[in-house]
Design brief:
The chain has 509 residues and is mainly α. Helix content is 57%, strand content 1%. The protein has a two-stranded antiparallel ribbon with strand order 1-2. α12 (218-224) runs antiparallel to α13 (230-240) and α23 runs antiparallel to α24. The longest helix is centred in the last third of the chain and has 24 residues, at 479-502.
Length: 509
Amino acid sequence: MIWESLSKLALLGTERGQLPLTVQEALSKIGIQTAQAPEAVLLEGAALYHQLRRAGFPLKKGEAVATKDSKTVHPAIPSRAARQLEHIIRGSFRPALPEALRLIQKASYAIPPEYLPALLYKSAKQEAFWYTLRPVIAPVDFELLRVNPDWAPLAERQPEENSTSPQRQERLQTLRYLRFEQPEKTHHYLSSFWEELIPAEKKELLNLIKIGLGTEDQPFLEDRLSDSRKEVRQTAAQLLLQIPDTPLQDTLFKTAASWFSIQKDGRLNLHIPKNPISEFKNLGLYSSKKHKYPGGVQAGRAYDILSKVPPKRWEAHFGKPTLDTLRLFARGNHQSLLTDSVANAALLHQDHRWMETLLRHWWRTDNEARWNSALGKQLMEALPEAVFNDILSQYLRQHQGYIEERSFAGQLLSLGKHQWEAGTARQVLSSFREWLNAAQSVYWNLWHYKRILQVAAYQAPVGILEEFRTGWNTRTPVWGNWEGDVERFLKTLAFRKDLQEALALPKTS
């Protein structure tokens, strides 16, 4: 009825007709301001319902849900920015999407409704992207989540005071809302019906506690360690391992510390236990995968425990600063196992000091195999932006000229996860331009610069655009091999510059 009414009015014109009151009420419930000009109501309503029809589902009665202040109204993004957002979503400049969302959030703009379905489908497939999108979407946008089964994993609802036995879907949606908006009420809500749940539902709800996981969750999770079902115990244990200074972490550390001894020459000796520890096995702390460390299964079990101990605890235990503790591990009798364990522990506990120390140590010792490994790339990706730029800048000062593919800087620059500082961008791109302008033949060992240019297009500051619009020697014999890459780099920088200008903070009167 709503779509038919909107279509009819569009054909007649707002000067010859109007929307029925029932349709106006329905539009109002999903956040469209019906008091505005009839033309605006028609356009907004048609845009939203056109996308709902394309998505292949109808709106249901009683599906409205307010997860934020429903009175908050954000202005629509400027038409110029809307056109650019369309280019991004359709794939022309897709890597610019995170930047666009940050700019939209900063300026408190609303995402045009016609682009929401694509963004919500992406969020349903990529949980990490939902954390980026969620702060940007308006209250009315949340109402779409519960009317499409494909978006149900994202749906939220506020707790209902008179709901004594909520159904599974309602429990999940309410807990998801609480974890984002009112995490302090999580445990009281769960306790009201916890004993009624089957083990699979308990595990499902526990997994949602990872949203905003913190020390206040510790008591509730510790109570779950004594559950009769292993899936509940193990899920709670995995969450507790990510909270620092818990009794479980104490037990883990004290057990692992008993495996070490210092030899007369100062080297660290790891005594790998022959049998699994029943308490740890009961909590699912051992991996079911077969490890390939020297020593086989026993070494794998030692790795499973050591990789969960917060690295900072070893500093206190051995009485050494971070780098000296790492060197102690690197000279131990199980070097690979120990360094892999502490690196994974740094990732688990997001210990940026240890991440930086590990990467700097591998760089200083020219350990190319380490920084080029999957683990090395994970550490690089997890670095804070300031640390990333500091390490990269220091490396480039010490290594002039072009950057080799498998070099430390080559791996950092190819990630595409961090924004580059202007000085770093200029140094990388200027050295490449100097090489290209003087090159007389193709060097296949520099082909990785195509990837570096792709990353620079989205991560370098747009302020460098004018500096690199010119200065390219188009007569060099190798220009034909690089012309397309350079043009795409400049075109993308220009696009991002326009995007930033179009989404600049609106001026206040």
